[in-house]
Automatic annotation (TrEMBL), chain A:
Organism superkingdom: Bacteria
Protein name: Sporulation protein
Organism: Lysinibacillus halotolerans
UniProtKB/TrEMBL annotation, chain B:
Species this chain originates from: Lysinibacillus halotolerans
NCBIfam families: spore_V_AC
InterPro entries from the UniProt entry: Spore_V_AC, SpoVA
Protein name: Stage V sporulation protein AC
Keywords, comma-separated and alphabetical: Membrane, Transmembrane, Transmembrane helix
Transmembrane parts of this sequence: 26-48, 54-76, 125-149
Source taxon at top rank: Bacteria
Length: 133, 151
């Protein structure tokens, strides 16, 4: 019984070992330098395993997914990254969020090509993130 | 036979309580209920306009509703017999407590029976939940105004 149970958990521990970060950044209306720099600052956060950054004009939406084992640090990582990007680019309206909804929606937005539609969608998402009830 | 002898005899006769097995059952059934809740949360997040933060209320309502229907059909009782605390501790146990008390009072009429019995068990949960939430909020308010914590 014990042996069987420990065998059952092996795949879970092995999944935890994969240490890759998937970071995707859109390239609508943003220069190369900014993109690389923001990708770099996301990559520097070790707790993040998946992130999406979407630029539209002066809006930036960064949705991050924090490693489940470090879930209690989620808010801290969010705040740290928000502060870091705001300090680097004071002219950008940034929102860093660890919410799964924003991650899911921005994954869909990555394939969007219409800039107007994207801007509307970003605005909607930012409003949704403020919702508390 | 004196009382002491009787007690000894009783202890010999009663089968030992399978604590380990009960704990294991409660753990897995409770875990399965929570997994279903998590799946419902993701359902709300992906298909509706809920964020992870706001989907909590809707998920709790749905889980309680499902438990209420299962109680009415008599299925939750079987689950409770099998897993004990595993089915009572999650929020579904609250729905079960409300509906089973209401069913119990049905014979006494609709108002004085169902109406007054419905929260006989769950009333204390609500009362102490609200009271303890108030005190936790009070402590946090004090800590924030002193400057130990942030909101």
């Amino acid at each position: 019984m014990k042996k069987l149970a420990s065998l059952l958990f092996v795949p879970f521990f092995l999944i935890g070992c994969s240490n890759e970060q998937t970071i995707q950044v859109t390239d609508l209306a943003a220069d190369e330098e900014k993109r690389v720099e923001i990708e770099e600052s996301i990559r520097n956060q070790e707790e993040i395993y998946s992130a999406t950054a979407i630029f539209v004009k002066d809006e930036l939406l960064v949705s991050i997914q924090v490693n489940p084992w470090l879930g209690f640090k989620e808010q801290k990582v969010e705040k740290r990254l928000q502060k870091e990007i705001e300090e680097k680019y004071p002219d950008l309206k940034v929102l860093v969020s660890s919410d799964y909804k924003l991650h899911w929606e921005s994954q869909k937005l990555l394939e969007e090509e219409n800039e107007k539609k994207m801007a509307d969608e970003i605005k909607k998402l930012k409003d949704l993130a403020k919702e508390e009830t | 036979m004196d009382p002491q002898e009787y007690q000894q005899l009783e202890q010999q006769m009663t089968p030992p309580t399978p604590y380990f097995k009960n704990v294991l059952k409660a753990f897995f059934v409770g875990g399965i209920i929570c997994t279903i809740g998590q799946a419902i949360t993701y359902l709300y997040v992906i298909f509706f306009n809920f964020t992870e933060q706001t989907a909590g209320n809707a998920t709790v309502a749905t889980m309680v509703f499902i438990a209420m229907i299962l109680t009415g059909l008599g299925l939750y009782r079987k689950l409770g017999q099998f897993s004990g605390a595993g089915s009572a501790v999650p929020v579904t146990g609250f729905g079960n407590a409300v509906i089973s008390a209401a069913i119990e009072g049905r014979t006494e009429g609709f108002v004085l029976g169902v109406g007054s019995n419905m929260f006989k068990l769950a009333g204390s949960v609500i009362l102490f939940g609200v009271a303890s939430a108030f005190f936790v909020a009070l402590i946090k308010l004090i800590l924030v105004s002193v400057g130990v914590l942030e909101w």
